[in-house]
Design goal:
Chains A, B: Keywords: Cytoplasm, DNA-binding, Metal-binding, Repressor, Transcription, Transcription regulation, Zinc. Chains A, B: Homodimer. Chains A, B: GO terms for molecular function: DNA-binding transcription factor activity; transcription cis-regulatory region binding; zinc ion binding. Chains A, B: One of its GO terms (cellular component) is cytosol. Two copies of one chain form a homodimer. Chain A folds into two domains: 3-88, Winged helix-like DNA-binding domain superfamily/Winged helix DNA-binding domain (Arc Repressor Mutant, subunit A, Orthogonal Bundle); 95-144, Dna Ligase, domain 1, CATH 3.30.1490.190. By secondary structure, the first copy, chain A, is an alpha+beta fold. A three-stranded mixed β-sheet of chain A has the order 4-3-5. Chain A has a two-stranded antiparallel sheet with strand order 1-2. Chain A has six helices and five strands, in the order H-H-H-H-E-E-E-E-H-E-H. The model of chain A has no long low-confidence stretch (mean pLDDT 93). In chain A, helix 2 (24-35) packs across helix 4. In chain A, strand 3 and strand 4 form a beta hairpin. Chain A has helices at residues 3-17, 24-35, 42-51, 58-71, 112-124, 141-144; strands spanning 74-80, 83-88, 96-100, 106-109, 128-139. Chains A and B meet through strand 3, helix 5 and strand 5 of A and strand 3, helix 5 and strand 5 of B. The structure holds manganese (II) ion (2 copies) and zinc ion (2 copies). The site of one zinc ion has 7 residues of chain A, from helix 6. The structure holds a DNA duplex.
DNA sequence: TTTAATCTTGAGAATAAGTTTCAAATTAAA
DNA sequence: TTTAATTTGAAACTTATTCTCAAGATTAAA
């Protein structure tokens, strides 16, 4: 069984356990998201679905995202220009996002040690950490060179 | 000379150097911000000014904030519910903000080592870091105990 | 199956932070 | 002063996200 259909089955279970109804819209949205290999926002996702001929409304996309976050398949990873960006978080720990303030490009940096230390800091302060956002704002290599 | 009037003088200089005009509105806003000991958002700041009898408009508050960020007196430190929060950054390095997803309280955690490592990570990747946001989302001690 | 209760949907209205517009007021240099 | 350039307040605008509600879909029971 493919990873995707495994997740779809899991999601159906999750929905049922919550006493909600499993709909084709919810499944369509999940499947489309699982195809994304990068960060995405609601508009991008919605446009992809429409192009494929899907009839889901933007409202349903907005309504499904919190469910997928709760189920643990995606996470909000940063906000830019008052828009939220998400990414699939299968086996993926939170990580650093470097955001270039000139070209708005976003790059990922993984640092396991840093991730661990962040967890520790929360625990030291008697907090129960769930997730985190670490965004470094600056100038990327290309913009520095004036490309 | 007080720290505040020193900064006010500096700010006047900064404004002049940019070829802009030094106005009472800009000074009022700066002075009010310097009084804040915690994180603030535009609405809070605007309300404080109005209560004091100030006639500044919200538009001017929105227009002055980027100048104060550029001058280095304040920084945007996190976003919550589609609102930006700022704080005075006199001698204050960026630091960790722990945000309780239940009570929405925000706590600060300082970790110089972490701060240094974040800078290094950016440089390793050939980025010029300017600032960063590190927000840990979780449950605070009080909320865990059900207070 | 049918039924019936409950939930979800799409469409569009509503909300609200932040930005823009523009005429009137203010600044600052001469 | 005079004058050119900038800034202001008020209100209109923009835009992501949320809300509303009637119509349609799902589910468990009959
Ligand atoms: Mn990422
Ligand atoms: Mn802080
Ligand atoms: Zn760049
Ligand atoms: Zn709390």
């Amino acid at each position: 069984m493919s990873v995707t259909s495994e997740i779809v089955k899991d999601f159906k279970n999750f929905i049922k356990k919550k006493g909600l109804k499993y709909t084709s819209e919810r499944e369509e949205i999940l499947k489309e998201i699982l195809k994304s290999k990068q960060h995405f926002d609601v508009d991008e996702l919605y446009m992809k679905l429409r192009k494929k001929g899907s009839k889901v409304s933007k409202a349903s996309v907005y309504r499904t995202i919190p469910l997928l976050v709760e189920a643990g398949y995606i996470q909000e990873v940063y906000k830019q220009d008052s828009r939220s960006y998400y990414e699939v978080t299968l086996d993926k720990l939170p990580h650093i996002h470097f955001i270039c303030i000139k070209c708005k490009s976003v790059d990922e940096i993984i640092d396991d040690y840093l991730a661990e230390r962040i967890q520790e800091e929360a625990k030291n302060k008697n907090y129960t950490p769930l997730t985190y956002h670490l965004e470094i704002f600056g100038i990327c290599h290309k913009c520095k060179k004036g490309v």
